[in-house]
Design goal:
There is one protein chain. By secondary structure, the protein is α/β, with parallel strands linked by helices. It has 2 domains: 282 residues, Glycosidases (TIM Barrel, Alpha-Beta Barrel), CATH 3.20.20; 83 residues, Sandwich (Immunoglobulin-like). It contains 10 helices and 24 strands. Strand 17 and strand 18 form a beta hairpin. The protein is elongated. The two termini are 25 Å apart. The model has no long low-confidence stretch (mean pLDDT 97).
């Protein structure tokens, strides 16, 4: 969708009283009018944490808040019927819905199994550090609360390849199961990063592959979601996800927009994964996030490098851009939160440029009470500007370490479209930039209300635009 915008509608500490699906449904029209075209909803299935489970400690992917399991019927976010109603309401408001899919691991098994396993080194998962031993592991999933509704598939240790806890003696270590090996086509951190957490699915097992396909088809038919956000893809074989998405597209005859979370600051690894999945999967531009984080914390950061070594610059068609998310927010595992002063400059980059598919973080737009982080309501202005003004040819002025800018010349389809953006990470700055001869004699004002002056465009289509220190100004007609 041209100038589409995703919103990630949750943050880690969200207190929604098992009522998020209803809350989102009630916001559908408001979000649509704001300019949101797609929404990434949190994992909808039952997790080990019951009503407090954010969604990544997956227990039963067939329980969308319908069965009494893990101490609750509803998930943290609501019931199955509320979820489906939420999706329908969003789609009626013209908003696509992307489901958060977590297939890498399971947690909270119903029974313990006693099996042979070998301890491996945390820093090099290929290196065995002890002889094979007998361990007790939480690997038998029968989902008694669901009573085989939707699926009679039961998981046992042969469907997994490793776990990080021996219940026989309480030892926390990484155990690789008998006759198993880590998958090769995964990230090479720690020698091999197949194992992340919980009990790790074995995607070389045909029963696992078939069950995941069957579940995906069931999920799509039930929920009617428009696409996926795939969790932790660097721990899962690219060939599996290519096959999985290809199968589901064939079954549904839908495009099923899919974005994966490959958490790495190395853009070459992202290129490799996109190539291995034949472009079926877009990826979050993690390198761009890290550039934002560094720029917000280093007063000497060279702004001309803000797009360097990013997916946005090198493969914009497959880049989903973001400023922060639930993993980067304070106290989380990947904490790298952008300092507040640089949030709006960062959002202007992902929202007002032509490259990438931007994703707004709930915690930025609405705040994070847990960490006393106030809402940044000016993001709404940038969303509106993207919706109404950010069209036409883009001209870059990435020529100063402390001040960068760009313009969009606008197009004939969108009345008053066209804009000029200027970002400073140091002092006050000015830059002469071209917006187009059609604006000759027109007066531009700063939509961010940081500067009161007007800029008059000369007959050659140029204006001398201004920005205050450590801020962003967006000039519009």
């Amino acid at each position: 969708m041209i100038n589409g915008i995703i919103i990630q509608y949750f943050e880690w500490y969200m207190n929604c009283n098992q009522n998020l699906w209803n809350m989102v449904a009630n916001k559908a029209e408001e979000l649509s009018k704001m300019g949101i075209t797609a929404i990434w909803l949190p994992p909808a299935y039952k997790g080990i944490g019951g009503k407090d489970e954010v969604g990544y400690g997956v227990y039963d992917v067939y329980d969308l808040g319908e069965f009494d399991q893990k101490g609750t019927i509803k998930t943290k976010y609501g019931s199955k019927d509320e979820y489906i109603n939420c999706i329908q309401t969003l789609k009626q408001a013209g908003i696509e819905v992307y489901a958060d899919i977590v297939l890498n691991h399971k947690m909270g098994a119903d029974f313990i199994q006693t099996i042979p396993a070998t301890k491996v080194d945390w820093s090099n998962h290929y290196q065995e550090i002890a002889n094979q031993e007998i361990v007790k592991v939480a690997t038998k999933f029968t989902f008694p609360g669901r009573k085989k509704k939707y699926s009679d598939f039961e998981w046992n240790w042969t469907h997994f390849d490793g776990i990080d806890y021996n219940m026989a003696n309480g030892e926390k270590a990484l155990f690789k199961f008998k006759d198993k090996s880590w998958e090769n086509a995964v990230d090479e951190e720690f020698g091999n990063y197949d194992y992340l957490m919980g009990v790790d699915l074995d995607f070389t097992n045909e029963e696992v592959i078939e069950e995941c396909k069957k579940w995906g088809k069931w999920y799509l038919e039930l929920t009617k979601v428009d696409g996926f956000r795939l969790d932790a893809v660097k721990h899962i074989s690219a060939s599996f996800y290519k096959e999985w998405i290809e199968y589901l597209r064939g079954q549904t005859k839908k495009e099923l927009f899919t974005v994966g979370e490959y958490w790495s600051g190395d853009v070459d690894k992202l290129h490799k994964y996109i190539e291995e999945t034949q472009g079926y999967i877009s990826l979050f531009d993690v390198p761009l996030h890290y550039n934002f984080s560094q720029a917000s914390k280093d007063e000497h950061y060279d702004l001309t490098q803000i797009l360097s070594n990013t997916l946005t610059k090198e493969n914009p068609a497959k880049a989903v851009t973001f400023v922060d998310n639930h993993d980067t927010q304070p106290t989380q595992a990947l904490e790298s939160f952008i300092d507040r002063w640089f949030k709006l400059p960062a959002y202007s980059i992902i929202l007002l440029r032509s490259e990438g598919y931007p994703c707004i973080f709930y915690g930025d737009l609405y705040g994070i009470p847990q960490n006393n982080i106030e809402p940044l309501i000016e993001i709404k202005t940038l969303i509106k500007l993207r919706k109404e003004r950010a069209y036409g040819k883009q001209n870059d002025y990435m020529d100063s370490k402390n001040c960068i800018g760009w313009t969009r010349e606008g197009d004939d389809e969108h009345i008053k479209s066209g804009l000029a953006v200027l970002i400073s990470n140091a002092g006050y700055a000015e830059k002469r930039m071209y917006v187009g001869t059609k604006f000759a004699g027109k007066k531009f004002i700063d939509a961010m209300a940081n500067i009161d002056d007007e800029v008059v465009i000369d007959e050659e289509g140029f204006g001398i635009f201004k920005v205050k220190e450590k801020s962003v100004s967006v000039w519009v007609y």
